[in-house]
Amino acid sequence: METLSVNKLKEMILYVADQIIESKPLLTELDSAIGDGDHGIGMEKGFLKVKEKISAMNPSENVYDVFTATGRALLMSMGGASGVMFGHFFAAGAKNAEPKTFLNPEDFIALMQKSLNTIKETGKANIGDKTMVDALEPAVQAMKMQGGTSFIDLFRSAESAAKEGAEKTKAYQAKYGRAIFLMERAIGHQDPGATSVWIIFRSLREFVEK
Ligand code: ADP
Ligand code: MG
Ligand code: MG
């Protein structure tokens, strides 16, 4: 699959939303260990709103409208720091992007690179700070290495890098968010936001493999 249409992208986002909603128990469990236990609840709330907005979206010829609508729905409904971050994940890269009727792998890499930049500028987190950046940055790097060949190869490489990055957060103390107060007691626990990033890329890969 070399390009994705507006309708395919809508289907893809709906699939991602269902997978995140299904992962609520895992995300809640992870955030209960090192945070306030609401990450699964917030993500569920956010992606229910995404499903509502994407299903009711006005017909569009621009693939970036799908990402903007997704990010806005998360930003509006999730609240908190992670609402802003996951809003940026989808919407920041679409901002001011030249309208297109089909998205290709190179477009997706550029979109994710822009989103990562905005997330880092906003939240100030870097690799090793035990946040979603620990999964997203390696995923973006892996996609750039992979290059714009096919969506399957692209999402496979992003998924495996995000998974590895999320697992590495177990070894880190937190520098942002509530886990900061745990100091070394946060060690041994995987970051919930990084886990969500992995689930998103895993879902993208599953969708194009279906
Ligand atoms: P809250 O911490 O407000 O309860 P959530 O539980 O939904 O929000 O999300 C927590 C996740 O947010 C963390 O696991 C982490 O990945 C992410 N996060 C927190 N602070 C930052 C930051 N400054 N930059 C990037 N991600 C962050
Ligand atoms: Mg929380
Ligand atoms: Mg909270």
From TrEMBL:
InterPro entries: DhaK_L_YcgS, DhaL_dom, DhaL_dom_sf, Dihydroxyacetone_Kinase. Residues 7-206 form the DhaL domain. This is Dihydroxyacetone kinase, phosphoprotein-dependent, L subunit. GO terms for molecular function: glycerone kinase activity. GO terms for biological process: glycerol catabolic process. It comes from Flexilinea flocculi. Keywords: Kinase, Transferase. It comes from the Bacteria. One of its GO terms (cellular component) is cytosol.
